[in-house]
Design goal:
Length: 99
Amino acid sequence: MDKGRGERVDFLMKAKVMGGGTAVTALDKQIGGGHYKDLNIQPIEFIHANNLPYIEGCVIKYITRWRNKNGVEDLEKIKHYIDLLIDLEGDKNADDPAR
């Protein structure tokens, strides 16, 4: 992992824990509810720290919020993204003799 990125994530996590005199970050604000902001670690922090691609990031986002936002609809979105990932990655791996 890029050292700068790791330091940024560490800073954001420390800022969140310390509160008080710490500057407000974008992670302290959320437009449209608190379903991410109220988590111990926000999905974007995990996605960014682990350099996850778009589809995998969407799965993380929806799995962390489904109980507090859209319920089963978010679970259906997860299934859709997993099916997309299988279709896209399955095509790539179809010719791989190591699989």
